[in-house]
């Protein structure tokens, strides 16, 4: 099983949405992934994140904001993906087997639901491409701009 950690600053929005979207993409693609999200500090999962994920038929109801120390085996991930610049700078060093990727997304906090939806849709495109690459035995995209718009069937 491939282990994936999605890391952001507060684990309240982008990383939470990315976790749910990655799990769903993996489920649809039949890819065996163990997906977690965490923050460099914990706060709470934002209601707007819950709202826009629910619009896709997914739920963040059982999600809580957590730090890296709250996830099982925090130094044992195949992929660590940071989704904000601050987390990329604060991300700890991982052993050689861990592949790191940085996919920076705009923080939708304080914006309209349309802004939240736009970030959600960008996350969905990115992490579907990530899962599709794993499914097809390809290198996962290095950056957001390297990711083709891919729908995982």
Taken together, the total number of domains comes to 1
Could you state the order of secondary-structure elements as H and E? EHEHEHEH
Tell how many strands the DSSP assignment holds: 4
**Approximate helicity band:** 25-40%
Any guess at the CATH architecture?
Answer: 3-Layer(aba) Sandwich
Question: Can you tell me the residue ranges where pLDDT is under 50 for at least 5 consecutive residues?
Answer: 147-153
CATH homology superfamily name? Response regulator
Largest sheet: 4 strands, parallel
In DSSP terms, counting alpha (H) and pi (I) runs of 4 or more, how many helices? 4
Keywords: Arsenical resistance, Plasmid
Pfam families: LMWPc (PF01451)
Domain Phosphotyrosine protein phosphatase I: 2-133
Protein name: Phosphotyrosine protein phosphatase I domain-containing protein
Descriptive report:
One of its GO terms (biological process) is response to arsenic-containing substance. Keywords: Arsenical resistance, Plasmid. This is Phosphotyrosine protein phosphatase I domain-containing protein. Helix 1 packs across helix 4 and helix 2 packs across helix 4. The chain is built from 4 helices and 4 strands, in the order E-H-E-H-E-H-E-H. With 153 residues, it is of the alpha/beta class. The protein has a 4-stranded parallel β-sheet. It has a single domain, classed as Response regulator (Rossmann fold).
Question: How would you briefly describe this protein structure?
Answer:
The chain is α/β, with parallel strands linked by helices and 153 residues long. It has four helices and four strands, in the order E-H-E-H-E-H-E-H.
């Amino acid at each position: 099983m491939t282990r994936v950690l999605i890391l952001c600053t507060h684990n309240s929005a982008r990383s939470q949405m990315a976790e749910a979207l990655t799990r769903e993409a993996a489920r649809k693609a039949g890819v065996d992934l163990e997906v977690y999200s965490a923050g460099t500090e914990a706060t709470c999962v934002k209601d707007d994140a819950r709202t826009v994920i629910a619009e896709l038929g997914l739920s963040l109801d059982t999600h809580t904001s957590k730090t890296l120390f709250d996830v099982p085996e925090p130094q044992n991930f195949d992929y660590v993906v940071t989704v904000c610049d601050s987390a990329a700078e604060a991300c700890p060093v991982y052993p050689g087997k861990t592949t790191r990727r940085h996919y920076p997304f705009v923080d939708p906090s304080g914006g309209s639901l349309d802004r939240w939806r736009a970030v959600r849709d960008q996350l969905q495109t990115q992490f579907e491409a990530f899962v599709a690459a794993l499914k097809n035995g390809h290198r996962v995209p290095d950056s957001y701009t390297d990711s083709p718009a891919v729908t995982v069937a």
